[in-house]
Amino acid sequence: MRRGPVPPDGGAALGPLLSLPELSAADGGAFVINILIEADRVELLAGEPQPVEAPRAGRAPQTIWRCPSCQVALYSQYSHPQIRFVRAGTLDDPSAVAPDVHIFTRTKLPWVRLPDSVPVFEVYYDEREIWPAASLERVAALAPGS
Predict the structure, then answer these.
(1) SS3 call for 58
(2) Which of 62, 99, 125, 126 has the fewest CB atoms within 10 Å, counting from its CB?
(3) Fold of 8-142
């Protein structure tokens, strides 16, 4: 995967940066920060990540691609194969990004404090109400026949 400051090569993240406490068990941390980006904009520089199916509560499993050497999660795919959820912690400079929204906070640990300046949802949200118009247009362009 291309590594470096986000967005690489002057691109932009597809949608908001997400904090996902529900994924903490799968990744061993208090939460995960993902960057949504079109799959064709994720460039592998070396090696081939290994896909691993991971269960999700009451939903179809997600695929997590992991480094074959160290097994660190690099990115995930949920229901849309055209969109990758790239783990911000795998970037050379993870401090270059911060969450735009916190989701699945119903599983948040009590000691995790979320800023009042960022929208918080116990589960998911309606992207049409939160995402910028440019992000919604990029998702619409991924739909078959567009």
Answers:
(1) coil
(2) 126
(3) glutathione-dependent formaldehyde- activating enzyme (gfa) (3.90.1590)
**Can you give the pLDDT of all 146 residues of the chain as single tens digits?**
333 334 443 334 444 555 554 444 455 566 788 888 899 888 877 889 999 998 877 778 889 999 888 888 899 988 788 999 999 888 878 888 888 899 888 888 888 899 999 999 998 899 999 989 998 999 899 887 76
Residue 88, Cβ density class (10 Å: 0-12 exposed, 13-18 middle, ≥19 buried): buried
* Contact indicator for 87, 73 with CB cutoff of 8 Å: yes
Q: Domain residue spans in the chain?
A: 8-142
This prediction's pTM: 0.74
Residue 25 per-residue DSSP state? H
